[in-house]
Amino acid sequence: MNHKVQKFFAILILTILLIVSSSSYYGIKGIDNLAYVVAIGLDVGKDNKLKLSLQISVHQSNENGSSSSSQSSSAVVNSIECPSINSGISLFNSYLGKEVTLSHCKVLVISEELAAKGISEYLFTLTNDIQFRTDSNIIISKCDAENFLKYSAPLLDKVSARYYDIAPTSSEYTGYTESITCNEFFNAINDKISDPVAILGSINTPDTQKTTNENSAYTAGQTPISGETSVETMGLAVFNDDKLVGELNGLESICHLIISSKLENAQIRIPSPIEQLNYIDLYIELDNNTKNSLYLVNSSPYITSNVKLTARIQSLNGNINLDDEKVVSKIENYAEQYLKYHLNNYLYKTSKEFNADIDDFGLYSLKYFNNISDLEEYNWNHHYKDAFFNVNVDVELRSSYLLVNTSKEEEE
Known about the structure:
Elements: H1 2-32, E1 34-44, E2 50-58, E3 74-82, H2 85-96, E4 99-101, E5 107-111, H3 112-117, H4 120-127, E6 137-141, H5 145-155, H6 160-166, H7 171-174, H8 182-189, E7 197-204, E8 230-240, E9 243-248, H9 250-259, E10 266-271, E11 279-286, E12 291-297, E13 300-315, H10 325-353, H11 372-378, H12 380-383, E14 388-397, H13 401-411
Parallel strand pairs: 1-4, 1-5, 5-6, 6-7, 13-14
Antiparallel strand pairs: 1-2, 2-3, 7-8, 8-9, 10-11, 11-13, 12-13
Helix pairs in contact: 4-8, 9-10
């Protein structure tokens, strides 16, 4: 028995030593011999099929000479033309003198030009790479992906990896875009009854900026924000299968999140139904999940969406009396009509113009088919362009009277 116990402990100690030595070797290799990619850019090449750009975290040491983490490193962008992603990475390994690793990659940026040609090949390649993180966000850039990464680099100085973690979360409190991962996009491509969307990004310059009365009817690169040229994400890129077919602006992205029950909260600006030439800012939230239903009428989808929202007034003209229930009701009714109009426009745009079901309406059609063969014969993606929509919107103003009551208390 004692001999067996001694043998067991000997094997255990040997195993621990092997693990520790392997970990130490990997740590040394990670610092000295690995090039950490924080972002990948894909463009159409001039002389080759593809231009591959890698934003690489450059390891630095602090003043005391001790090592800093990859998240506090600066970043550089290198590009190369190549026939495929794998061949490009091999060339980078030779050029950099280090092994490229995708284990820290936070985002995949693809240019609109390349996305219009189809991107399933590149998604398959990356998702089959055990290093690549499928929870990385996917951005479709209205400018070259290479330039998108280069303009990101100054903003990423010493916070490169962390920036790409934070940037997509703006969708949670604006609704102007949606945080889409490569895994979600890949699954939608392989789904026979839905189509994918991706984050829409671009470089904001004075030449691309636009002015509009609706502060959310912009796409990336158009917002009238002055300052240094920088990248921004706003709107969504819409795909039919793996090909880019169009884009949604910020307001249309809000509509998408409402219909698909993904809206956290958002601000919309509506014309005032009380005073002409004035506007009211409303902070809206979904009160319940949107109730979608579908019927096939002569093989054409007839889709109904019942939307229930709560709204809080954020700003309005001081002459509007919110103590008056008729005034409140008038604002609610106008907000309902306003949202119904834009939701209908959004739905018919995705159906007639894009023929892309990005709201998973196809799931509601499954009850009409006995098996997959029947579903494939019907061809949902072909019939979605024939869809008709009926949208009902219910908006309830909450806490509106606080604006009036507070002002009254201050006067007293």
